[in-house]
Write a structure and sequence with these properties.
The complex is a heterodimer of chains A (439) and B (358). Chain A is 43% helix and 13% strand. Chain A has 439 residues and is an alpha/beta fold. Chain A has two domains: 30-148 and 286-385, Response regulator (Rossmann fold, 3-Layer(aba) Sandwich); 150-281 and 389-415, Rossmann fold, CATH 3.40.50. In chain A, the strands form four sheets. Chain A has a seven-stranded mixed β-sheet, sandwiched between helices. In chain A, strands 1-2 form a two-stranded parallel ribbon. Chain A is globular and about 65 Å long. Chain B has 14 helices and four strands. Chain B has helices spanning 13-16, 23-43, 46-72, 80-97, 103-122, 130-150, 182-205, 207-217, 219-224, 229-256, 266-279, 284-307, 314-335, 340-353; strands at residues 163-164, 168-170, 173-176, 258-259. In chain B, β2 (168-170) and β3 (173-176) form a beta hairpin. Chain B is globular and about 70 Å long. The chains are: A alpha/beta (439), B mainly alpha (358). At the A-B interface, α1, β2, α3 and α4 of A face α2, α3, β4, α12 and α13 of B.
Chain lengths: 439, 358
């Protein structure tokens, strides 16, 4: 009796669990694009508009053009909750379905996936997040982080604050309010080396993930130190909290500049006091683009999306659209290079390496004037694009600067060094064996 | 009528005191081991091994560790996550300083480091009890996690503050790093987990286990019959932290492949504590059952709608999973407040007298 039950139980459980992850049958002419998203948890505030933007653009391509190059896209969301454990679970769940690209949307998950990419032959697109050093294509052939790294972004903020030159900040006090995990710390070594080189006084205000909504003690310090410039690298609930605290502490908004992640509601939540808050961005806010109009018509109005009415055009929604635009262009480029219709992860890696999205191409896909050009190569997986500063006027973002190029002279040597150090620390890091298409 | 000891004669004291006195039980355990060692690695696919079995075994091992402390010795600890972190960071440091030594040696050695730290934080346990001790271990949780985030030496001055796992081999096969196959990592995990579960079972059934249980049930009485409380409690902290530390090292090296300090936060401590509460305090089997409920049930729940052809979007499934898991936990605890292990005992007792209950 007992053994019988055990045996049956074991066989039953085994059969059930082995059957669980079986992929749904896939159509012949389709490309599988998993999207790692988070609509739950403490980061849902930032994650949801991005998830909507990514999902809607790819769905729009399916509806309007029947996919890319006549091949339908299978868009599949996997909920990570910004949690590394769940991210790995998502990765293992999608891997048997032959994904052509993975977007981790978390620096922590990206770090865990970087060593796997070359083994599993699945390229990783960590769009303007993740490991800055992965911009070096000769060391990280499978990792892509266009259009700018966190180090580029920092140099752009400092250049803006220094009126065009970082060296003008000599002797100033600069505060760095950051999310104290892999993401916020990513910019730290570059910031510290700049402080030494240029000679400004760097004050650090780390915000632990558990204390995102409890920053009052940090703001006491900020008020005491009264920095001449406060740089913020925040995510999720940290951004609206920081802006609210800044208003409460009467910190002058014109000295408060953030990296590209705060969304419209983050600033709006702080009320009128948030007027004048600035952040970097590289694409337009607003919905006056043909591609976004198509999304509105074919996807949102047709009830094929969870996007709320006013979300299209918000900064992070458009960020999601931009991310999907890169995916779509990489797949299109891969089709062009290989001549195949149904491309694989290896083909899309080549596509990502040969991106050349200029103004004419942007116009052709209905995003003319949405964003500056992006061009990648085998050595440069990032394109180190220029960004601009936008300011919150109480209701919308207003562009207040021209394009600011990163300070390559300062970023590049450190980037080379970091890539080399990563390869050295991870003994047995494979040398690049992938052939190059654009020598 | 098939599951009973009638007709099984015991001729030695050893047989009489065996952990599994009934023959059917021994066959059952042997069968589980055969399935675990031979069938699963041969037929399990990557998702099953990577996402279900490896984490399940590692979490079970951590739950056994906490159960030795909380379930057997009665010392409530909320620092499990941090002690797992100690194991992981110790293993990373040892591995990067002496890369030529086999990784398995370092996984076990990192347990010793964790045991040392555990003893240190266990010292107050002689004076403070119950919830107050829980608060003291909470301090360990926050202090150690702070160390992981703030002491750059622990991560070899890595810019991102994360630890990364290099490729290491065993008998020529890679066991850690991206090139290690799931089956290899599963077998290594299973071997360590099975061996350590066997050792734990022997510890708790022997003199030390009885000593711990005497301390748990009434420490003054235990002291009166000649048990030295300080040594008993510190030993419990040491052995428990050893188990937890090994589990932590395995979590990073055989499962995650890279880790941030956030991986060892208070949520992990609570998760392991829930495992032993649901599985059964003071039971090795309970640790496995609890880990299965807390780790495997959400994954199964997520997979069910897809299996029956329902398409529910990812975020909603996640929220549903949370709600259903919560409801099931409450239901389990109402049906059997002493945990699943006790439920299993009851079922076994019923089976023994079936079909003529008396």
């Amino acid at each position: 009796m007992k053994t019988d039950i055990l045996l049956k139980g074991a066989i039953g459980a085994l059969a059930l669990t082995l059957a669980l992850p079986a992929a749904p049958a896939q159509a012949e002419d389709s490309v599988y694009v998993p999207l790692f998203t988070y609509r739950t948890g403490p980061f849902a505030g930032s994650g949801t508009p991005i998830a909507n933007g990514m999902h809607d653009y790819l769905t729009m391509l399916n509806e309007r053009d029947g996919g890319i190059g006549g091949v339908k896209l299978i868009v599949d969301e996997c909920e990570t909750g910004y949690d590394t454990k769940k991210g790995l679970e998502c990765y293992d769940a999608v891997k048997p379905k032959n994904p052509v690209i993975v977007n981790p949307w978390s620096t922590g998950i990206t770090l865990s996936l970087i060593p796997k990419a070359s083994v599993d032959k699945i390229p990783i697109l960590s769009m303007a997040y993740g490991l800055s050093a992965s911009a070096k294509g000769d060391v990280f052939p499978w990792i892509f982080n266009p259009p700018a790294t966190y180090w580029d972004g920092l140099s752009e903020i400092l250049k803006y604050a220094g009126g065009g030159s970082i060296d003008a900040l000599k002797g100033k006090t600069i505060g760095y309010l950051y999310f104290d995990a892999a993401f916020g710390r990513e910019a730290l070594p570059f910031f510290q080396s700049l402080a030494k080189e240029v000679g400004f006084n760097l004050k650090l205000y780390p915000v632990a993930p558990a204390d995102m909504q409890n920053q009052s003690s940090k703001w006491l310090d900020i008020r005491r130190d009264n920095p001449d410039l406060l740089v913020m690298y925040g995510w999720g609930a940290m951004n609206p909290t920081a802006i609210k605290e800044a208003v409460k502490a009467e910190f002058p908004m014109d000295k408060f500049v953030s990296i590209w992640w705060p969304n419209d509601p983050d600033a709006a939540a702080a009320g009128d006091g948030a007027k004048g808050f600035k952040e970097l961005n590289w694409h337009s806010a607003g919905a006056n683009f043909p591609a976004l109009a198509d999304i509105q018509k074919l996807v949102v109005d047709a009830g094929k999306s969870k996007t709320p009415k006013d979300e299209i055009g918000q900064v992070l929604y458009n960020r999601g659209v931009y991310n999907s635009m890169l995916i779509a262009e990489a797949i299109a480029e891969a089709q062009k290079i290989t001549g195949k219709k149904v491309v694989t992860g290896e083909d899309v890696r080549r596509g990502l390496e040969n991106l050349n999205i200029d103004d004419a191409r942007l116009k052709a896909i209905g995003l003319g004037g949405f964003v500056g050009p992006v061009k990648t190569s085998c050595a440069d997986h990032n394109s180190h694009s220029a960004t601009f500063v936008q300011q919150w006027d109480g209701a919308k973002w207003v562009k207040v600067s021209d394009a600011i190029a990163p300070d390559s002279a300062k970023v590049m040597p450190l980037l080379d060094e970091a890539a080399k150090a990563y390869a050295e620390k991870n003994a047995g890091w494979p040398a690049r064996a992938e052939p190059c298409d654009n020598k | 009528m098939f599951y009973r000891e009638a007709g099984e004669y015991k001729t030695t004291y050893a047989a009489d005191m065996a952990i599994f006195p009934i023959r059917q039980d021994r066959y059952g355990v042997a069968l589980i081991l055969i399935v675990a060692f031979l069938v699963i690695p041969a037929f399990g696919n990557q998702f099953f091994l990577n996402t279900m079995m490896i984490p399940f075994l590692i979490l079970s091992l951590a739950a056994i560790g906490l159960n030795l402390l909380t379930g057997y010795t009665g010392l409530l600890s909320l620092g499990t996550g941090a002690f797992m972190g100690v194991g992981a960071y110790a293993c990373y440091k040892l591995e990067t300083i002496f890369p030529e030594v086999n990784i398995l040696v370092w996984i076990i050695a990192s347990g010793l480091v964790s045991a040392l730290i555990g003893v240190l934080f266990g010292l107050p346990s002689l004076r403070i009890k119950g919830f107050y001790l829980a608060v003291a271990t909470l301090a360990a949780q926050f202090f150690l996690q702070w160390c992981f985030a703030r002491v750059p030496w622990l991560v070899n001055y890595n810019d991102s503050g994360a630890i990364e796992v290099p490729t290491q081999t065993l008998f020529g096969l890679p066991v850690t790093g991206p090139t290690a196959t799931p089956a290899t990592r599963y077998l290594v995990t299973l071997t360590i987990a099975a061996a350590m579960a066997w050792i734990a079972s022997n510890i708790v059934h022997g003199r030390i286990g009885r000593m711990w249980m005497a301390v748990r049930d009434m420490d003054i009485a235990a002291e009166l019959i000649g048990i030295r409380l300080l040594r008993a409690k510190l030993l419990a902290f040491a052995v428990s932290s050893f188990y937890v530390g090994v589990a932590g090292a395995m979590m990073v090296f055989l499962w995650f492949g890279a880790a941030e300090p956030e991986a060892f936060n208070i949520d992990l401590s609570f998760q392991i504590l829930f495992m032993i509460i649901i599985g059964g305090l003071g039971s090795i089997l309970g640790a496995f059952l609890g880990a299965a409920v807390i780790h495997l049930m959400p994954i199964a729940l997520r997979a069910v709608p897809a299996m029956v052809g329902l398409s529910i979007d990812a975020a909603r499934i996640d929220q549903l999973t949370l709600m259903i898991t919560g409801a099931l936990i409450i239901a389990f605890l109402i049906v059997e407040p002493h945990g699943l292990a006790r439920l299993w005992q009851t079922v076994k007792q019923k089976l023994r007298v079936w079909p003529f209950p008396y």
